[in-house]
Every structure is written in C-alpha cells, then in structure tokens.
Design goal:
2 domains; seven-stranded mixed sheet; globular; two-stranded antiparallel ribbon; 9 strands
C-alpha cells in the first residue's frame, strides 16, 4: 500500500511573514503534481478518508499529490477564528507555488479557495452558504434537544456581527460573512466532477465520517484519465 509522507510548507501569515503548516503528500511519477484542497469544517471530517484514498489511488497511477493544512485547521497552530476566506485563498496559492503543483483537485467547498487559473477538477463543488446552513441547522436541532430555543436567523445575525461556533468550529465574523456570499467561480480552468457521476450518495450527507472505495475509484479515475495516466 502506498504510504504518505508529512511535509512542512511556509504559509503566509495574515500580518505578513510566514509560519509553518504541514501537508500530507503522496509521491508519484512525472505525470503531474496535484494540489488537493479539502472540504471545510464538518464536511472535512466526513470526507477526510475519501480524500486521502483518492490521493493514494492517484499515487498508484503515478500522479503525485499534496494536501496542505489550511491555517486554523487540523494540525495548524493558528487560531481558526482569526482566519478569513481571502487568507485561505492566499494560503492555497502559496501552497501551490511551494509544492510546484501543476493541477488542483478541490473537494466540496475547497473550490472556493482554489486559484481559478489552475487546471484541475472540482469534486461536488458547493457554495459557502450551503456549508453554513447545514451546520446552522445541526446547531438548532442540538439546541432544541437541550431545551434551548435558537433560530437560524438569530444565529446568522450573531455570526455576521461577532462570529459563532458551529459543529465545534469557531468562525470569526469576517469568515462567516465571506462564506455567506462565496460561490464557486463561474469561469475557471477546472472541470467539475459531479456526485451523480459516481456510485452512491455524497458522504457528507452521512451522520458520521464514512468511506467509499467505489467513489474514491471514480474520482481518481476522472483525474488520471484526464492526465492520460489511467
């Protein structure tokens, strides 16, 4: 089984300068080096294994991949509540430059931070508002079960003005407001990999993190086939 390696990369700091973030990388051949931008927040947890399994399959096809931590996520020591969507875009571009990526593969809301001029693929791209709504809905359900009355409207107002915690993720007001307006770019150099082209429903719809070998096969095949490495 192909094993990944952990690397560090210089991520731009919001106030200037850089700080180290880590990235999970799979070595491949000379066909391409693909930057992988993951799903956001709760969906990142549910799709992490699928994402890594796609990378493993691409490595087996001779395609190198790298999955960087965005500031405030996973092993990052940066505070999530201080992050903005624009800063994540800068981080994604810096990772692409540092790792000399030739292509980009985004997962769900990862499409919101991908450099639009990079060739590649967007798997089941989604806008920021949809990501927020699912977490807002989950919070209101949990509050109701605890005997607390919260509405999506009041939570949205809180998120815009002071930030909010959703599904264990503490979002600053700037991030919340940006996500409400963010949508995948209408014109990019990236092709879409639709969920309905794969076997089964989206794993982000499940209550707990899951996996699907068939879906990992399908996504990897779409990328490898486009690169002539199938």
């Amino acid at each position: 089984m192909t094993k990944p390696v952990v690397k560090t990369w210089p991520c731009p700091t919001a106030g200037g300068g850089t700080h180290d973030e880590i990235a999970l990388a799979f070595r491949g051949g000379d066909t391409a080096r693909v930057l992988v931008l993951p799903a956001f927040f709760d969906e990142a947890n549910k799709l992490r294994r699928l994402t890594v399994e796609v990378m493993r399959r691409l490595a087996d096809a001779g395609i190198a991949t790298v999955l960087p931590d965005l500031p405030g996520c996973n092993e990052s020591r940066q505070p999530l509540q201080a992050q903005t969507l624009d800063h994540w875009r800068q981080a994604a571009r810096a990772a692409a430059d540092h790792f000399e990526a030739s292509h980009v593969l985004t997962v769900r809301a990862g499409a919101l931070v991908a450099p639009p001029e990079m060739a590649g693929w967007n798997y089941a791209p989604v806008g920021g508002r949809q990501v927020l709504r699912s977490m807002l809905r989950a919070r209101t359900i949990a509050a109701r079960e605890a005997g607390i009355e919260e509405t999506i409207g009041t939570l949205e107002e809180q998120g815009r003005s002071e930030g909010i915690e959703l599904a264990g993720w503490t979002l600053g007001a700037a991030m919340f407001r940006a996500l409400e307006e963010a949508a995948p770019a209408a014109e990019t150099a990236q092709a879409k990999i639709a969920q309905d082209a794969l076997e089964g429903g989206g794993l982000w719809l499940r209550a707990e993190p899951g996996e699907s070998a068939a879906q990992a096969d399908g996504i990897a095949a779409a990328v490898a086939g486009a690169l002539g490495a199938a």
